[in-house]
Design goal:
The complex is a heterodimer of chains A (about 250) and B (about 350). Chain A is an alpha/beta fold. Chain A is built from eight helices and twelve strands. Chain B has a single domain, classed as ABC transporter involved in vitamin B12 uptake, BtuC (Orthogonal Bundle). Chain B is globular, with a radius of gyration of 21 Å. The chains are: A alpha/beta (about 250), B mainly alpha (about 350).
Chain lengths: ~250, ~350
Amino acid sequence: MTALLKIDGLRKRFGGNEAVKNVSFEVNPGECVVLAGDNGAGKSTVIKMISGVYQPTDGKVYMNGALLTGKTPEAVRTAGIETIYQDLALADNLDPGLNLYLGREAVKHVLGVPYLDRRKMREDAAKVMLSLGIVVPDPTAPVREMSGGQRQAIAIARAIHWQAGIVIMDEPTAALGVPEQREVMALIERLKKQGVGIILISHNLPDIFAAADRIIVLARGVVAGERRPAETNDEEIVRMMMGATL
Amino acid sequence: MTDNTVNGSNTNIKPGGTSFVRSLLNAWSWLFLILILGFFEIYAQTQTGSTLLFRIYNLQAISIAASQILLLGLGLTLVIVAGHIDLSIAFSTGFAAVVMALIVRTAGADADWVTVILAMLAGLGAAALVGAVNGWLVAILNVPSFIGTLGTYGIARGAALIVAGGATVSIRNDHTRAFGNGDILGLPVPLVVAAVLTLVCHYLLKHTRFGAHTYALGANRASVERAGVNVKKHLILLFILSAFTAGIGGLIYTSRFSAGAANAGEPILLYAVAAVFIGGASLTGGQGTITGTVIGAFIIAVIQFGLVFCGLPPYWQFVAVGLVIIVAVLVDQSKDRLMGGKS
């Protein structure tokens, strides 16, 4: 199987601090790769380099064999990599439709003048949300009026709607209650079945073991080790996170 | 940021009473405008036996006062929706007024249309320069807009006074006067200009991607950044737009009074800011509409004109407008409480 996403020798330096020293890994279609690591291990810096928010000091990112490094976040999204951040990055004052389309709004032309096509955006949002098993009570209401789980679903709906090949999720369950955590894990399974490759950032061990096909442990900016869930246990992962040599 | 404070339980249930109060609060500025118009009309009918509403002269005077406030408030509305403020518009107006007046005066009384238009473009350029500096300060240097535009408020004021030699620049030119005092289809030119700009700004904010990004920027900057929008460029454009509409206010001032004054916009700044907030904008950004600002501008203009009409000393207008601003903020707060939204 050829890798969907290939990360090769990423390095990032902030002033005198080298946050990421040398990180390489691959993600295959329908595979969930968990990036595990303690705070400051470099997980967030790595995903920001993949999504184009940071430019790496050194190293390259390939999607389907095409070089992504140096592209803008918008170009990276267009290439099929959608990132769902911990804080969801929703515009609370806008409706689900505009949030789904933010940055890529649908436009219709009336007498040659472009207008936002709010209805199309709302209908699409309701449709994708429904496919995730969520009924939007009022598609014109701002997302601030929705529950935590519904808001999470909007962020995931973005990835599905834009047919992402890779979805990066940063601590998706951190701010959620137990039932909503289960929903998110179920959503991850559904994405995998559609052939989407997932990079999941987490330091929650039960989540890691439930979702991962492979676990890549980062410690102090380098890959401390890579394991399949079946061939390891909590204790070993924690030891690797703490930076114990192997 | 506020993600985990949102609680679905109290927002899924919307009892009829609450949504009625909510739509009432959303429409309060309309109601308020109707109320004060009714009040002044009844006062006029009963106390003086005249009428406020049914005389073209009165309506025109109110509309022109409102259009002055609007020209400063239109671009400002977009800036405030994006979560920023622009205080420098007070002197973007004056700077544009003075630059235009100087060029027209230099060209002489018999300067032709082309020269007058070039003078106007130069005035707008001067205002846009102030806007560009604001954008650079806020977007590139990350200076808080309140402080940054307070700085350019001073700089533009000084620049306008220096250019004008500290005095009002009076001019004598028929074309200029025609622009400021003539009419198109029976409507005063300043009104027509303000109406066209209002439509353009309304379209920009409500119907374009630029407008959607402006709202999103006011709610959560990260949401727009991560959506791949060039936020810095967006902010710079917003501040240029704000200075631009204020600059048009300056051109109209010079044309109406045949004189450019550095402080042409200074007394209107507070009214413009007030109009935006009365119209439903919020200091934290993400809210506000052009329609709201138009109503806000009319409320202030009606108060100004109505109090004088009733024979009260004109100074009462400051008190009255101040009270309305406070009411606007109180309404905004109770709206937030009802929506259960902001923390």
